[in-house]
Design brief:
single chain, Purple Acid Phosphatase, chain A, domain 2, 5'-nucleotidase,  domain 2, about 25% helix
Length: about 650
């Protein structure tokens, strides 16, 4: 072989290499800048479509199919972007329950919500507390994550096409994390040098995930003895050295939790404020609280910029829930000292709604609905199954003000179940009075349609799902009279303290306490709530069957597994006094009770258990509810409720006269 052909061959290869080098990413030089969008969904709760399964109609104000449109628009706006999910993804709708409990998906099938998310191509996500509601075997299957459960390794099944990371939940036997605690996401981004030249540079982003530590209490029946959980700060400190050894450009903490500045404990439900203070974390994605950040809810919180979206100097965002919003962090990066540094002055966060104005919602992404059409149709057909009749309209529009029509069905069904089943396990408790506690899960937090409203007439499984929103199981606890009063006092924190001398409007509802923590207890019980008194001293005239309840008097209270195991931090409820832990779901118990009842008459429902103490205030005592519902209050014998003004968005301000 002559030297000339060899020389030509080498020259050709060299030129080809030089030509290709212009398109390959190179290390960004000092002074280079880049804008990177961190996009976040959270608490989608399997709302794949804009559809209300309880009311059997389209609802464009929710649904991932519209969030998908916002994601595509954000990607068009930001050439450099990452997309993450902060959990509570697989549970929360009839569709989710259908695929988990009624007609479970097979090992080779992907959940509808993950099918939809895969269309958009996520870079990673974490698990929320509700991921554990259906048990570890189901979670292992649908996330495509083999786990050691009871000494057996689960198979690898179909899961989302993106990594799920979780750093604070461990197998109880091996001590190993049940999910990969962290991973690295590598991308090539567009950047600009100091002279304005566009370059392509590598960006190495580490993601680490966290779930609320109280899952061990909330899902005790699914997790006890199977996993252990650490605090979020402790988990971050455990794995950050491993992450830093890989020299990432950025570390993104994906936390299914919100912000709380109370003193830190490893059991803290919303540890985001403390996680932001851990050295090495650059960006914080939040969730769980169903409250957008940045936003006015967090105004005034220490070391938090609730306008631009910073927590202790770290850019942070919490998108909305049910697919209502997309969280966006516009991250400005500057190349300084040989590494990418966040330019805080040019960085900001925002939450972008799918409906910027009432009746003005972005269009649905057309790629989503066809993917889930079969599963959606099957779920709709399932909840149309007839179970009885009702002569009573069952609603939660005024549940906070004393209308117990919807709650009374739940309490009647729970009490009936415990009275029948408990003596089989504990005959010694057969003579102990049984009460029942239930909370209205749908009290308008999600908007003017977010109320239970079961019309008089035919009842279906949809009616039961509307009456009981969550897939909780039934539990019963044994308490004394002092514990009963403490339970009711905690529930009464749902109300603000009202000043009788106040001349202006005074809001009745304490919006910082969610409606699902306002337990209303029935069963031959009567009590009065005095909102003029401070929290902890509001329950007056507590009686059972007309006689005052004594501190040492024994009761059994039917409730759900969440509350019985400590959910909501109610005094005396931590799982230790549980006397019945059923595997039956409360929703199914309600459906079975309605079916046995046949035709539901008002006389079949327990009497209202509580009322407000008479209180005459100088100014109006107000609350917000769905507009145009005053007739329902009147029909259910709630006196003194008047609609003051319609807000034009489906809600209205009402006044309640407590002097009556």
């Amino acid at each position: 072989m002559s030297l000339r052909p060899l020389f030509l061959l080498l020259a050709t290869a060299l030129l080809a290499g030089c030509a290709g080098s212009a398109s390959r990413p190179t290390m960004a030089p000092e002074g280079a800048r880049a804008d990177v969008a961190i996009l976040e969904t959270t608490d989608v709760h399997s709302n794949v479509l804009g559809y209300d399964y309880f009311k059997a109609k389209d609802d464009p104000s929710v649904g991932y199919e519209r969030t998908a449109t916002l994601i595509r628009r954000a990607r068009a706006e930001f050439p450099n972007s990452f997309l993450f999910d902060s959990g509570d993804t697989i549970q929360g709708t009839v569709l989710a329950d259908y695929q988990a409990l009624v007609s479970p998906v097979g090992c080779d099938q992907e959940l509808a919500i993950y099918q939809a998310m895969d269309v958009l191509g996520y870079d990673g996500g974490t698990a929320g507390n509700h991921e554990f509601n259906y048990g570890l075997p189901f979670l292992s299957q649908v996330t495509g994550t083999p786990m050691d459960i009871g000494g057996k390794r689960t198979p690898r099944c179909a899961g989302p096409h993106f990594p799920l990371v979780l750093a604070n939940v461990f197998d109880a036997h091996s001590g190993q994390p049940v999910f990969k605690p962290w991973t690295m996401v590598d991308k090539t981004i567009e950047a600009y040098t100091s002279d304005g030249s566009r370059i392509r540079a590598p960006l190495k982003v580490a993601i680490i995930g966290f779930t609320p530590p109280p899952i061990l209490q909330w899902d005790q029946r699914n997790l006890q003895g199977k996993v252990t959980v650490s605090g979020v700060v402790e988990a971050a400190q455990r794995y950050l050295p491993q992450i830093q050894a890989q020299h990432p450009d950025l570390v993104v903490a994906i936390l299914h939790g919100g912000l709380d500045t109370h003193p830190y404990t490893p059991q803290m439900e919303n540890g985001g404020w403390y996680l932001a203070g851990v050295p090495g974390i650059d960006v914080l994605l939040l969730g769980h609280s169903h409250t957008e950040f940045p936003g006015p809810h967090y105004a005034g919180m220490a070391d938090v910029d609730a306008v631009r979206g910073f927590v202790r100097g770290k850019p942070a965002v919490m998108g909305g829930f049910f697919g209502k919003d997309l969280g966006v962090i516009k991250l400005a990066l500057a190349r300084t000292g040989g590494r990418w540094v966040v330019d805080r002055a040019d960085t900001r966060s925002e939450v972008r709604p799918i409906c910027p104005k009432k009746n003005e919602c972005v269009p649905a992404d057309p790629a989503i609905a066809p993917l889930v059409a079969k599963a959606h149709a099957a779920a709709v057909a399932y909840v149309d199954t007839p179970i009885g009749q009702s002569t009573v309209r069952l609603t939660s529009y005024f549940a906070d003000e004393g209308d117990m029509t919807a709650l009374a069905v739940v309490n009647a069904a729970q009490r009936d179940y415990v009275e029948r089943e408990l003596p089989k396990l504990h005959p010694e408790l057969a003579g102990v009075p049984v009460l029942s506690a239930a909370a209205a899960f749908r009290t308008g937090f999600g908007g003017p349609e977010d109320y239970t409203d079961v019309a008089a007439g035919p009842l279906t499984l949809r009616s039961a799902a509307d009456l009981y929103f969550y897939p909780n199981t039934l539990a019963a606890v044994k308490i004394d009279g002092a514990g009963l009063k403490a339970w009711l006092e905690k529930s009464a924190e749902r109300f603000n303290r009202i000043d009788p001398a106040g001349a202006g409007e005074q809001p009745l509802i304490n919006t910082r306490m969610p409606g699902f923590n306002f337990d209303q207890i029935q069963g031959d019980l009567a009590y009065v709530i005095d909102v003029a008194r401070p929290a902890g001293r509001r329950i007056v005239s507590l009686s059972y069957r007309g006689k005052p309840v004594s501190a040492g008097q024994s009761f059994i209270v039917a409730t759900n597994n969440y509350r019985a195991s400590g959910g909501g931090n109610f005094p005396g409820l931590d799982g230790s006094n549980t006397v019945l832990a059923s595997q039956d779901g409360v929703r199914e118990i309600v459906a079975a009770w309605l079916k046995r009842t046949g035709t539901l008459e008002r006389t079949a429902l327990p009497a209202n258990a509580w009322r407000f103490a008479p209180l005459k205030a100088r100014g109006p005592i107000t609350f917000t509810a769905a507009s145009g519902k005053q007739a329902i209050a009147t029909a259910d014998d709630l006196k003194g409720i008047t609609q003051l003004r319609d807000h034009g968005d489906g809600t209205a301000t009402y006044a309640i006269d407590l002097a009556r």
